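Human: I would love a firmer grasp of how sequence relates to backbone shape in proteins. Could you go through the record with me and say what the backbone is doing? Here is the record:
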Amino acid sequence: MRKLELNEEAMLCSGHAACPGCVEALSVRHVLATMGPDTMAVIPPSCMAIIAGPQPFSSLKIPVYQPTLEASAAAASGLRRALDARGKRDTHVIVLAGDGGTYDIGFQCLSSAAERNENILYFCLDNEGYMNTGAQKSSSTPHYATTGSTPDGKLTRKKNLIDIMAAHQVPYAATASASYLPDLIRKVEKAKAMRGFRIITILIPCIDGWGLSDDAGLRAGRYAVETGAFPLYEVEDGTRYTINQPSCTRPVSEYLALQRRYRGLSAERTTALQAELEAGWARLQRMAALDAATA
């Protein structure tokens, strides 16, 4: 095993309001430590807004601006331009938003910022639902998952946000997970060194919303990658696909068994999910192979 040298500078302080075992707090801890103190964050209403807490009692050691739920990317764009006007071009502007404020309510602003290639780094903390308000479904909620608004299981598939962002031909779009910490930190460092619009979607298994035991968050994240439910990959300039894992080796049934939101799922639906993930993995492999063939 290779020893991972971590930046342990405390940018997210203890005493915050995250749930016990919260993967979001762990993920953001490493994101902020990698970004460093010369960073400003935009945080819309979300679990992260609760974790960060109100000013002047924020658990983050960097300036935080909390806009409306739909306006994260627009607020970050304005903040970036204000800093540039003051000559602070080296100060990083990041967004820490949930999937509800990214995939759904904030998507118009997100798409516009990507089209303008705004110089911001957007982190979507993807817990696959509106967990802060009772675990309702979002367009990030996966197929057949039960939520507060889909008690018999969601009948549509999860939106492929990274491919949508890649279609905007932004400099960098990637998926990441704290269950694969070296990969997460490498991607944050890579995105930090670039300019233009960058987005990293981080999977956040939600202890309460997914129905996980307090110590199962990182295991769920690992299983999500190993089944292909959340593959690790990156796309540069909208065309260059790189897969960051060797293969998908775990059956989806083992991933589903960890979660209360899939309790009682029929064998037929489990088989359909397995086929769906295998088709998605094959498609991703084709995209990466196409790029390799044309390089």
